[in-house]
Specification:
385 residues, alpha/beta, Rossmann fold, Dehydroquinate synthase-like, alpha domain, two-stranded antiparallel sheet, 11 strands
Length: 385
């Protein structure tokens, strides 16, 4: 069992991330401790696949600690993280009789967490929110830090808020139920964390990746389960430290501890998702390609050594096979990048690497079109693993 505390001192916000094997059975106990005795209703937002696996257990656990539980299941997939789905979620909360002291519980991956969190942030101008992430990507990244929102046709996550949960509850047993592609997506985000912020975390992640690959069944053994919990906790601590120092991703910050560094790989990733209508790639898979493109850019601009790029390529390759991307028109991707929500004064801010574990934020005006096109061509080719 691991516990990570997220502290946002400027706003006096603190919450716990509880990580362990089998903690879903105690979801009611942890939620009651975090929410207090005045919370009567817990409205669970999930999808059919996840709820079929864990819904009964979570509802039973919440009910055993006195919560009145209702649930609503959204459609599965990034393309359903939409304004229409948000409206349906808000209608569900209204029909469930949710009041200001009540709570929304997100049970699922990053899409569920983003939508449920934004619904919690906007319903009655804000009700309490609990994250129960069930994918590797959501456990180490999406559930930590308070970014919630939905997509628009013009781009990904263009409508949203910074809204912190009261509790994040991570049951590592859920990893054993994930299909290979979901694990690949999560591993790519894990590699991202290490690549931009901590070489030790990068090496630790690659070591665990070499043992687990896309199979967490070994996590049932005591020693291996401890290693899995410890590594997830290390990623949560890294993300929490970045968020504590720059919760709202200040546009004026461009240093190596800015929250912007967590967008490594995301400029290309969001463009890939957008031009394929969110149907070809899992988010983490797109980030995998995005890191390869950013790595190529870093090397071509004279920032990153060739052997470091090779190590990054090997790490991404070890995450698992990625869907084909070489056929996507580069001009479409470049056009999509211009609508990225991270743009400032019309210019994209690229997160690049000086070394593994050391990021640098570079203005898009310093990245020539020829250099960008070359990086996209090379970065989107199939990896030779």
């Amino acid at each position: 069992m691991q516990s990570v505390r997220v502290r946002l001192r400027a706003r006096q916000i603190n919450y716990e991330i509880q990580i362990g094997s089998g903690v879903l059975a105690d979801a009611g106990k942890y939620a009651r401790a975090a929410l207090g005795t005045t919370t009567k209703r817990a409205s669970v937002i999930s999808n059919q696949k996840v709820f079929g696996l864990f819904g009964e257990q979570v509802v039973r656990a919440l009910g055993s600690d006195g919560f009145e539980v209702s649930h609503w299941l959204m459609k599965d997939g990034e393309r359903h993280k939409s304004v229409r789905s948000l409206e349906q979620a808000l209608s569900f909360l209204g029909k469930s009789g949710v009041e200001r002291n009540d709570a929304v519980v997100a049970l699922g991956g990053g899409v569920v967490g983003d939508l449920a969190g934004f619904a919690a942030a906007t319903y009655l101008r804000g009700v309490a929110f609990v994250q129960i992430p069930t994918t590797l990507l959501a456990q180490i990244d999406a559930s930590v830090g308070g970014k919630v929102g939905v997509n628009l046709p013009a781009g990904k996550n263009l409508v949203g808020a910074f809204y912190q949960p009261q509790l994040v509850l991570i049951d590592t047993n859920t990893l054993q139920t994930l299909p290979r592609r979901e694990l690949t997506a999560g591993w790519c985000e894990a590699v991202k964390h290490g690549a931009v912020g901590d070489r030790k975390l990068f090496d630790r992640t690659v070591k665990l990746l070499s043992r687990c690959g896309t199979d967490f069944s070994l996590g049932s053994a005591g020693e291996s389960q401890t290693e899995v919990c410890d590594t997830i906790a290390a990623h949560c601590r890294f993300k929490a430290a970045i968020v504590a120092g720059d919760e709202r991703e200040s546009t004026s910050r461009h240093d190596a501890r800015s929250r912007k560094i967590l967008n490594f790989g995301h400029t290309t990733a969001h463009a890939l998702e957008m031009v394929t209508n969110y149907q070809r790639f899992r988010h983490g898979e797109a980030v995998g390609y995005g890191m390869l493109v950013a790595g190529e850019l870093s090397k071509n601009l004279g920032m990153l050594a060739a052997d470091a790029l090779e190590s990054l390529q090997q790490a991404v390759g070890a995450c698992g096979p990625l869907p084909a991307a070489e056929d996507i028109e580069i001009d479409r991707l470049i056009a999509a990048m211009k609508s990225d929500k991270k743009s400032v004064a019309g210019s994209v801010k690229w997160v690049l690497l000086e070394a593994l574990g050391k990021a640098r934020i570079v203005d898009g005006s310093d990245v020539g079109v020829r250099v960008l096109r070359h990086a996209l061509r090379n970065g989107l080719r199939p990896l030779k693993v």
